[in-house]
Amino acid sequence: MSKFSLQEFIPYALKFYSNQKNENVELRWKKAWLHHQNHNKHHWEYWIVNRNTREALPMPKKYIIEMVCDWRSFSRKWGRKVKEPSLVIRMLESDSVILHPQTRKELEVYLKHTNI
Fold this sequence. Notes:
Elements: H1 6-17, H2 23-39, E1 48-50, E2 55-56, H3 61-74, H4 87-93, H5 101-114
Antiparallel strand pairs: 1-2
Helix pairs in contact: 1-2, 3-5
């Protein structure tokens, strides 16, 4: 729950809930987002060993499921209709998402059986 740490909470609050829109706020939010990705196991970025070689460690199944839930919740806006129902599939097929082959396979199997 790193989003509630001062390192993340304040930059998120400034970016999304204040009238302050400037380079400093944006930079603080980008640092907070990077911190969040690298400190939460449900983000695929957490498992990257080397971006240049696209090497990643396999994700445990519970974090794969949390990641899918996170992607699905991100595709909604404040509990309203799904903005983009294919976001999960798009993330899986994206060249920018670096996953261990075993993680990718487990994710594909999970998605096939859950009809997402």
